Fold each of these.
Amino acid sequence: MKIVFDLDGTICFAGKPLSTNMVQVLDVLATQGHELIFASARPIRDLLPVLPPHMQQFAMVGGNGSFVAAGGSIISTVHFDQETKDNIIRLIHEFQADYLIDSQWDYSYSGDQEHPIRRNLDPDKRAQNKRLEELTEIVKVVILHTSEPQRLWSELQKLPIVIYRHGSENIIDMSPSGIHKWAGLQKLGLEPKEYIAFGNDANDVSMFQHAKHSICIGNHTELLRVASEQVANDENQVIDRINQLMHEL
């Protein structure tokens, strides 16, 4: 069975790498012949450091579908078209927004140095923090702060983009049109109803909708509407559910 795991808030917590206990239970899944796939809002650059080295070769979807990797190499990226890119940059300047913007590998960051996202950004120093004007292509945009979030949200909704608002973190997350986790999973060859999905947030809705079975970690209202079941946002309970799953498959 193919099993797709979101990372932050699902199998890793507080921005830290997978715990020893989580790695052990996932290793057992893999040794039983199940295919593990990771699907995260993080770009591949920032997804790799939370995984142990032997899992960094697994298939993965990053940037909510903007990046797809397998065998340790990125095999697909999707970026904003030039007009949309220009409009996003215009709105960022107009609303004096703080941001994290990813290109194919490098990034541009303008936010608070103590922001949780900054602390988790490129911990292995694999990339460069460039000026926004130096990024030739933009793959993913996160708005970290603006003085007028509702007005900015309204303007962004007019653009041909996929947009999520993460209420608990008070951030706005943008990807190119047609990009979501299910789109990324399809590039890995997945078919509807042939996988099990674990997730915890709005950006997991698309992969839940096409899963054979889906497990919501925590209490996200929108995700619960399409989830098969719910598990508390507690690492030990998630591990217990994975252990139980092994006996069901």
Amino acid sequence: MAEKQYVIFKLSGEEYGVEINHVQEITEYKKATTVPNVPNFIEGIINLRGNITPIISLKKKFNLVESEIKENNRIIIINLKSKQVGFIVDDASQVLTMDEKHIENPPEILTGIDRQYIIGIGKVDEKIIIMLDLEKILTEEEKEEIKNM
């Protein structure tokens, strides 16, 4: 079995993981400039070292209870079809190495077309970590809309 490294982040008290090789960087939260007529989960855009980067609220995308943005909020930056995209998370402060044997397939209740981004359930001691593929969180139409921002 192979070991992989995951960036562990929190949303509404739950832990999620994403493969570290999908993450370009993690940066401190910056207030986004609102863009009109975009889906409600797109917070807006920021200027990240000269790159205009759309920022997505994972809480809104996942229909989680929103909370006030705090100083420990982070933005996880990934490349999505050659465009930089950021995801706001509550905290992202840990990199964890996990053996694939500790990651199970998602239960049937979590599968389906709108849950294709859940790639597994990681078990570390007594904790459960929901493993995500951030590139699959958006539909093709949403990716196209972001590409054209």
Amino acid sequence: MSRSDFANKPWPTNIRLLQKENALEVEFDDGNHFSFSAEYLRVESPSAEVQGHGASQKRTLGGCKTVGIRTVESVGNYAIRIHFSDNHSTGIYSWSYLHELGCKKNENWSRYLEMVKTLGLSR
């Protein structure tokens, strides 16, 4: 896939793994700039383990507060795979999914915190 395949979708212009902050920063060509904690990326992983096989199957993970990002690798030129310190690495984060995670960060994070509380999980 090339950039032209994604003509009308945001495209990353810079991706930085911030080891000390345990975060990933992504800048997009539409001017958006997002900083994602490892915990947020882990609990919103696009993997089947978290997302299931449909919207009604999404699973709330606990115990991810101390999860770190070990490495980030390119998947073609359309996504990245994040290798987390808990050995999770099956989610492929497309550019559009990362952009969506950034735009919906407050909403997603609030929902996650509420679900953790409701389910009696620790972060």
